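Q: Predict the bound structure with alpha-D-galactopyranose.
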Amino acid sequence: MKTVLAANFLVGAAIPPNFTTSRESSVLIKHMSSLTAENAMKADTIQPSITGTPTEPAALNFAPADTIVAFAQANNIKMRGHTLLWHVTSPQWFFKGCDTDPAGCLPNVRIRLHDYIHNVVVHFGNKLYAWDVVNEVVAQNPASTSPYRTDSPWYQAYLDAKNAGANVEPWDYIEDAFRYADEARASLGLTSADLKLIINDYNTEIAGKRANLIRVINDLRNKGVPLDGVGHQLHIRIDANVADVTAALVDIENLGGLVNQVTELDVNVYDDPQSCGTSGTGCIANYGTFMPNAVEYRQARLYRALYAAFKRPSVQSVTTWGLNDGHTWYNDPSFGRTNFPLLFDSADNPKWAFWAVVDPNIAIP
Ligand code: GLA
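A: Predicted complex:
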């Protein structure tokens, strides 16, 4: 796959460390030109709080990520970094002291964020070609007056500091993260040509969410914040509209000087209400061990159209969130049904979707 698409973009998958030694390793070597650590580069893995003492950071733990990086290097595969700041995986130690002194803690919060980003960016250095500096910082609701996500401990800490008299805006943590990442990059002698600083988010294919994202990007750029591109997660469904995906790429191109990276692509095969994973009614029954042929063909047609749409000079990489249907977040028990979102089946056999992408001449039934 990486060979067929080499002229267009890097082809990637997000993986856990054990894929570098399990059966999956040969598939990765054969087909991938890019890898992402599924969880190993998140802050709650690299520097969690000490167990039982949430306000204190444990020692830096690069080992799981280093396993993936070493595998990538040995096999001439590039890597993305994911992610320096995500509200879901930010340990409590970053915010120590804020509950009692919301303004006084802010300089310390900033120093902790600075030092964490510095340590991590410098550790991986030029072994990565991109960092998701921030993940999911944009508000979902297109009608919201502010384009910034508010349900984040980062937003909350900066807001509390502001309310206690500090001269800061609640969204300034985003600017801080980019500036610290840029400073660390420069300290390595690297530039945006080597290591892209990315803002990553989901639902960028939905116009209202994307409008918020673009407001955030413009805000940052107006302040001179170094930002090199947008990561489009693209956790989409089998009824997705390719024109919407193309619009997401084009709108970012039109801002000028930014790259597009597809960072977490997968195609949920159930096109029914979101609530169907839990308590919904009118839902498609669990497909169980195999999805119906007609569904697999439909998924293949969507994947073919998507990869054709990704062939734009602005698109630097296309990464799926997982490698095979045997290891995907969509098969977490909370989703309630077996899903088949990726290009390889749970035994690593290429699916119709794979062949549809690599050979445009194959007719899909
Ligand atoms: C988000 C995150 C990923 C991953 C997925 C699926 O998209 O960016 O790191 O956790 O959710 O769980």
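A: The two ends are 21 Å apart (CA to CA).
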